[in-house]
Structures are given as C-alpha cells and as structure tokens.
C-alpha cells in the first residue's frame, strides 16, 4: 500500500475512505459496489486497488476508522481524570448522543457482523477486536468501583449499549437514549449500594 504524506495519493486514499465510510454506514456493506465508491470518490479503480487490495480490505479500514473515532470518545471521557463512575456516565452519554444524531443507522460493528457472520473473515475479526476493546475498557472502569462484579457489570453495560444501538434506529431514538442512560445509572447505583 502506498501512503505518501501530503501527496495526491494520500488525498485519494482519504477520499476513498471518507466516501466508503459515508456510503457503507448509510446503505450497508454488501449493497455498495466498488464502482459506486470509485465514482463518488472521484478516483480510478487503479487508485482504489493501489490503496486497498480488495473491497474487504476497504471494509476493514472503514471499521478501523470507526473504531478509532469511538476510542477517541472514550479516551476523551477518561482523559479528564474523571472518577470511574463519571467516566462510565460520560461514555453512556456519548453513546446516547450518537443514537439521537442525524443519520443514525445503528452500530457499524453490529451491522457489519450481520453481513459478515463468518468468524474467520477479516471483517468479522475487526468487529470482535473492537468489541473486546470496549468490554475490556468498561470492565476496567467498573473494577475501580467494585472489582468482584466488574465483569458482570461490563457485560450488562455492553448489552445495554447493543440494545440501544439496535433500538435507536427502529423506534424513538430520544426514548432509547434516555433508557440507556437510566440503565447505566442503574448499573452504577447497584454497585455503589452497601451490601
């Protein structure tokens, strides 16, 4: 892969990835062909294949870029040196904000897993890597509150998130976002109660 900083080649790669990201998220992965991405990115097929060996490679990079965005939001919440409970609330609010944003179409990773169910496929592997990162991050935060229940709490958090991401594009997104935030509060309240 050629990635020359500051060159037209890098600009073309960035344009390809930005175009693919927009179209893949809005319309799905299998339904969008290479010809459409090439046309909308205003590049040639040769340029696309110089940067991405296949459509699957482009899908993998799309998911990695979405993962980087989500990691940046979580890093922002943790970077403020917030206590774990406030960091978890901030992450929940960030997810809720995404659900109520214009053009929300569910979770890019859950959508990709549905289209690429083979666990050995590179696209599915990127989905699993992202989910593992999310679960580990949330587990670490819950461990700061209550170590023995951290793993269970993190699984609950991720399930709340997944349900909200699925419901948010099917029903009233404002209600779904509120329910997610209430659920996070419930998880935190349960862990802060004396036994």
UniProtKB/TrEMBL annotation:
Positions of transmembrane segments: none
Keywords of the record: DNA-binding, Transcription, Transcription regulation
Record has NADP as a keyword: no
Domain HTH tetR-type: 10-70
DNA-binding region boundaries: 33-52
InterPro entries: Homeodomain-like_sf, HTH_TetR, Tet_transcr_reg_TetR-rel_C_sf
Gene3D superfamilies: Tetracycline Repressor, domain 2
Protein name, UniProt field: TetR family transcriptional regulator
């Amino acid at each position: 892969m050629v990635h020359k900083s500051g060159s037209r080649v890098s600009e073309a790669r960035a344009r390809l990835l930005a175009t693919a990201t927009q179209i893949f998220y809005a319309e799905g992965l299998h339904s969008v062909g290479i010809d459409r991405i090439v046309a909308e990115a205003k590049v040639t097929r040769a340029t696309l294949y110089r940067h991405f060996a296949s459509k699957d490679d482009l899908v993998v990079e799309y998911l990695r870029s979405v993962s980087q965005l989500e990691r940046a939001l979580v890093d922002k919440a943790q970077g403020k040196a917030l206590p774990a409970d406030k960091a978890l609330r901030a992450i929940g609010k960030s997810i809720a904000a995404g659900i109520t944003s214009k053009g929300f179409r569910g979770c890019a990773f859950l959508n990709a897993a549905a289209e690429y169910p083979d666990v050995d496929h590179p696209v599915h592997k990127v989905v699993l890597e992202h989910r593992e990162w999310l679960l580990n991050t949330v587990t670490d935060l819950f461990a700061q509150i209550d170590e023995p229940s951290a793993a269970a709490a993190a699984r609950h958090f991720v399930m709340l998130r997944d349900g909200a991401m699925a419901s948010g594009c099917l029903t009233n997104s404002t209600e779904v976002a509120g329910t997610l935030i209430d659920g996070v509060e419930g998880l935190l309240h349960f862990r802060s109660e004396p036994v």
